[in-house]
């Protein structure tokens, strides 16, 4: 996928000035080294730039941005480059630079008494989790790419993951941010406060903005007590509707201990067995839910409560079978089936990816209507549907019928997107719940977003980045 070629390459004198900011250790100009920063790992987003700047401090970021502002040079900011919508890739033509924050990896402060941690934007999410655990705390943001994604990107896309049900998404986990503005000023918003009513909450303007309003260089993250007890279960349900009723029953029975509630179509398990050799723990079952409960202990408390709640669900007909993990290893095996779904689908054949959200109560209606509409047009399509049912976020990813070619199925992307997104709009949902807009959904956002809301977004962009130098051509249609 490529956009139109930008008008002019970055002049050599600008590149020389940028290189002088960081010295040789702070940039890449060899095409082979640049290439990984120009290519998305999925869906073929590709660009080209003459240089990748790799500053090691906020001061260096600010100096780079000042030069770009003065010379009219657009900037594409990257952290882990694990995005799924083309938001982190440059355009073709060499008129932009990539600014990678992957060398900004300092843990600036950990404050267990305040349950907070201040980190730079290039710190890998898994590292944040591990550093929190060292002081007996939990940083609950958790997603499949946590071993390579970085905090700056997590905040810029308002990342979600499997524990949003209990802890919220990235927006809820940031107490403060440090931002380099489009003209190279540094806003120090690293206040580790939970209550601050002194004006606008500016950090929320930059979180989820996909690098179009400012560059997040550091953040104060919110920590939680580390759970001492955990229970994991895979539950078969007679229908998608029963699964949502089960969610309500589990929350009533176990309260906030319900940390994750992942809904999975039965085809997710058959494809996982076929493509990656995963054993199906409940062969022949229909819709399934992978749920996790976490609490303060003592060890085993949650297991007893979960057993009782599942027994009631079985008796009420909300569940038909269940497996409770007897060990951490078994729990990890169950979670791997869920976490491997992206790769499973890559191996199963071309799929058309949707990252939608609707009110939790309307998930069964969405699935029923969308499946029926697609089946009428494309008999034999494979509805590989899974996601975070606890917060209404589904990855609705129809895979090509087995007798179709990948190319033929991909050619149907616009028609299938329109069908799915129109249904989401009728349900007052969102066409992107956690992956962001980037380039992938930019046109659809323009088609479906309220015109007043789009106008307000454009006003923000004009106010914060009047020259349109920060990640241009992304997010806003």
Automatic annotation (TrEMBL):
Keyword annotations of the record: FAD, Flavoprotein
Chaperone keyword on record: no
Claim: Isomerase is one of the keywords in the record: no
Residue ranges of every copy of the FAD-binding PCMH-type domain listed in the record: 45-226
GO BP annotation list: respiratory electron transport chain
Transmembrane portions of the chain: none
Gene3D superfamilies cross-referenced by the UniProt entry: 3.30.465.10, 3.30.70.2190, 3.30.70.2740, Uridine Diphospho-n-acetylenolpyruvylglucosamine Reductase, domain 2, Vanillyl-alcohol Oxidase, Chain A, domain 4
Signal peptide: none
Cofactor(s) needed by this chain: FAD
Matching Pfam families: FAD-oxidase_C, FAD_binding_4
One MF annotation (Gene Ontology) recorded for this entry: FAD binding
Family matches, as SUPFAM superfamilies: FAD-binding/transporter-associated domain-like, FAD-linked oxidases, C-terminal domain
Xref: InterPro entries: FAD-bd_oxidored_4_C, FAD-bd_PCMH, FAD-bd_PCMH-like_sf, FAD-bd_PCMH_sub1, FAD-bd_PCMH_sub2, FAD-linked_Oxase-like_C, FAD-oxidored/transferase_4, Oxid_FAD_bind_N
Record-linked PANTHER family: BLL6224 PROTEIN (PTHR43716:SF2), D-2-HYDROXYGLUTARATE DEHYDROGENASE, MITOCHONDRIAL (PTHR43716)
Similarity comment: Belongs to the FAD-binding oxidoreductase/transferase type 4 family.
Name of the protein this chain belongs to: FAD/FMN-containing dehydrogenase
UniProt organism field: Albimonas donghaensis
């Amino acid at each position: 996928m490529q956009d139109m070629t930008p008008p002019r390459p970055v002049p050599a004198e600008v590149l020389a000035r940028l290189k002088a900011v960081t010295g040789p250790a702070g940039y890449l100009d060899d095409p082979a080294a640049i290439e990984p920063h120009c290519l998305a790992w999925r869906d073929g987003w590709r660009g080209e730039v003459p240089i990748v700047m790799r500053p090691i401090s906020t001061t260096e970021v600010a100096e780079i941005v000042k030069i770009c502002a003065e010379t009219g040079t657009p900037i594409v900011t990257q952290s882990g480059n694990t995005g799924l919508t083309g938001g982190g890739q440059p355009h073709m033509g060499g008129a932009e630079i990539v600014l990678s924050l992957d060398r900004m990896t300092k843990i600036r402060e950990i404050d267990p008494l305040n349950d907070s941690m201040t980190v730079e934007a290039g710190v890998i999410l898994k590292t944040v989790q591990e550093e929190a655990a060292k002081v007996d705390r939990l940083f609950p943001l958790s997603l499949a790419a946590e071993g390579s994604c970085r905090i700056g990107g997590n905040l810029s896309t308002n990342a979600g993951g499997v524990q949003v049900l209990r802890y919220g998404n990235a927006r809820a986990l940031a107490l403060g941010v440090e931002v380099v503005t489009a003209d190279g000023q540094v806003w120090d918003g690293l206040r580790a406060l939970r209550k601050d009513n002194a004006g606008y909450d500016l950090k929320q303007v930059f979180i989820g903005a996909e690098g179009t309003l400012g560059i997040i260089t550091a953040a104060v993250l919110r920590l939680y007590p580390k759970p001492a007890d955990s229970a994991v279960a895979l539950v078969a349900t007679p229908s998608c509707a029963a699964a949502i009723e089960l969610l309500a029953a589990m929350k009533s029975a176990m309260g906030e201990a319900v940390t994750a509630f992942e809904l999975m179509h039965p085809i997710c398990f058959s494809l996982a067995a076929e493509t990656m050799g995963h054993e199906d723990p409940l062969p022949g079952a229909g819709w399934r839910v992978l749920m996790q409960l976490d609490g303060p202990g003592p060890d085993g408390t949650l297991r007893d409560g979960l057993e009782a709640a599942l027994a009631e669900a079985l008796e009420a007909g909300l569940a038909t079978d269940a497996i409770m993990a007897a060990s951490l290893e078994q729990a990890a095996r169950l979670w791997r089936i869920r976490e491997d779904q992206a790769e499973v689908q890559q191996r199963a054949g071309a799929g058309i990816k949707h990252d939608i959200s609707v009110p939790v109560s309307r998930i069964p209606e969405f699935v029923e209507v969308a499946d029926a509409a697609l089946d009428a047009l494309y008999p034999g399509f494979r509805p590989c549907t899974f996601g975070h049912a606890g917060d209404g976020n589904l990855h609705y990813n129809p895979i090509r019928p087995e007798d179709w070619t990948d190319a033929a199925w991909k050619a149907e992307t616009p028609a299938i997107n329109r069908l799915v997104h129109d249904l989401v709009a009728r349900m007052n949902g969102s066409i992107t719940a956690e992956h962001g807009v980037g380039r992938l959904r930019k046109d659809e956002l323009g088609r479906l977003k309220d015109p007043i809301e789009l106008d307000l977004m454009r006003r923000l962009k004009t106010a914060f980045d009047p020259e349109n130098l920060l990640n241009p051509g992304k997010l806003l249609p």
